[in-house]
Amino acid sequence: MANQESSLSKSIYQNMQLKDSDELLKIWVQNDRNEWSNEAFSIVHDILLERLGSVPEQNPDSPQRKRSRKVRAKAKIPPSVIIIFSPAVVVLLLILSISVINPQPDDKWFSVLMFVSLALFFFMPGFYFGWKSLVEGEQIKKRVAKQLPDMKKRMGIFYHFYTYFLPDRFVPIYFLYLARFSSIVFIYGGVRMIMFLIDVF
User: Fold this and answer.
1) Whole-angstrom distance, CA of residue 162 vs CA of residue 139
2) pLDDT in the model for residue 99
3) Does residue 58 contact residue 28 with C-beta atoms inside 8 Å?
4) What whole-number percentage of the chain has pLDDT above 90?
């Protein structure tokens, strides 16, 4: 195994030695990790250092790093999704567990658990959207204004349905007030669940 690695390194070194300094500089600076291995870059570094006496900085935005950032961006779950769906998962699990637990009409603990979960289901997105719309109102308007062309393409007919009578300049404030209205509706739903919980006792 060691002999194979040594033979490979020797082959890479001989191949790089045949290239002129300008070509090696281009390989080094572009830093394309998809095309060249770490071993190749190490060899290029040594050859350039020997020929030129110094080696320039590499481009930090190599395709490999760009692709990694895109993968991380795609994999990242928005906080709003977690806040909205985590209570929904709890409620769904409780509903699915009814047949297993088989709660009786007099079992108040299950009613308490269900109504508390439903209250969280409404309160969490309600307070989240309320906080976002109040604290980050200006940022939301700027973000919507910036993403307006993309929203038109992505939402298609739904965009025109929601904003049919609105000029584009009013769309950011519309979405801001929509978030505030949604917050009020969710919080009201949470309050109703608490009132139902009180009625249980």
Assistant:
1) 21
2) 79
3) yes
4) 5
* Nearest-angstrom CA–CA distance, 161 and 165: 9
Alpha-carbon distance of 15 to 110, in angstroms, equals: 73
Average confidence (pLDDT) over 68-90: 66
Residue 13 pLDDT: 84
Q: Quote the tokens at residue 9.
A: 């390194």
- The 10s digit of each residue's pLDDT in 146-178 is 777 777 777 667 666 666 667 777 888 888 888
What is the SS3 string spanning the chain? CHHHHHHHHHHHHHHHHCCCHHHHHHHHHHCCCCCCCHHHHHHHHHHHHHHHCCCCCCCCCCHHHHHHHHHHHHHCCCHHHHHHHHHHHHHHHHHHCHHHHCCCCCCHHHHHHHHHHHHHHHHHHHHHHHHHHHHCHHHHHHHHHHHHHHHHHHHCHHHHHHCCCCCHHHHHHHHHHHHHHHHHHHHHHHHHHHHHHHHHC
